[in-house]
Amino acid sequence: MTSNRRRDFKLDLCGLALLLPLLVVPLVTNEPFYNSLAYQAAIGVSAAMAVYVMLRMGLLSFTVPAFMAIGGYAAAMFAKAGMSELLLLMGVAFIVPALFAIPLGALVLRLKGIYFIFVTFLFNEILQLVLFETPTLTGGSDGIPAVPAATLFGMSLGSPSMLVVVTVSVCIVATICTLAVTQRFRAEFTSIEENETLAESLGVAVWKYRTIGFVASAGVSGLAGFALVNMLATAHPSSFASWSVNNYIAYAFVGGRGTMLGMVVGSYLLIFMTNIFSSYANLSAGLYGVLLLVVMMGAPNGIVGLFLKFSERRKTRIQPTITPVVKEGRA
Which uninterrupted H or E stretch holds 131? Predict the structure, then answer.
């Protein structure tokens, strides 16, 4: 394992470790504000992880809200049918979007640049129409209300504190899935991101690894969708609006798109500041935009990228200068 890869792996583990304190929040306080922050952060991180998987291959995918909707609605349908076991619902929320991603990936993964972005964004809009125009299946504009809370071995997990714990637990599972995929195929993903043509000429099956990443991203998105539906006890089209992907992408770029730690840091920062700015009513959107501008101008590679840059500079400065000693020989 090279030094850079070892460093990135440690940063990814740090990102995973930063999620653990969220499990403690509902156990130490009943304050709704802090519980709300915890579940918002968990859902935001899960969705950002789905963006991260595709960014590892240099692709900016806008399908996250659509796959969140597919996973969330699938889990809601199972829960309404009486199958509310947490592990089952998590499996459904991951597998169903992943299956949808296989034929969709066959259509869109050969596209590049703006064409890929445009088509994946259109997929969100098409799915929104499907959700609204199929009331017998999805409930239409009413969605699927009164979704039962998940259970674990028959024990209900519907109390406010347990809902937060479940949401954070789903986020941790989504993060572990992301870590497993991005580390297992790190070399292939990196080669595709750096030079797709060269990677293909060296025998890397670009389309194969793009498909693996796309399917994994869809599954992680589905877990985020299930966490949202379980928290709100309803599956509604408005919860998966196309514009929400802008937030998830912002989390990735503000925190630092190169590591999973960046996804966590970006999500925590922007979600916390969004809640702070919400008290300023009409100014909240403008303040949020100013924050994005300041962070992106001051740290083009994200907050974690800026930290790594300063860390490398510091190491360079403190390295001792070794002066070679030349011994004079006797004549």
Answer: helix 113-133
Contact 230, 168 (CB under 8 A): no
Residue type, 132: F
Q: Report the interhelical angle of 302-318 vs 244-255 (nearest 10°).
A: 0
SS3 (DSSP) at 34 = helix
Using alpha carbons, select from 205, 87, 91 the residue that is nearest to residue 154.
87
79-108 residue pLDDT tens: 999 899 999 999 999 999 999 999 999 989
* Burial of residue 224 (number of CB atoms within 10 Å: 0-12, 13-18, 19+): buried
Torsion on CA atoms 22, 23, 29, 32, rounded to nearest 10: 60
The Cα 204–Cα 46 span in angstroms is 29
Contact 63, 120 (CB under 8 A): yes
**Cα gap 161→144, rounded to integer Å:** 23
**Closest of 303, 244, 294, 293 to residue 51, by C-alpha:** 244
The 10s digit of each residue's pLDDT in 128-170 is 999 999 999 999 999 999 999 999 988 888 888 899 999 999 9
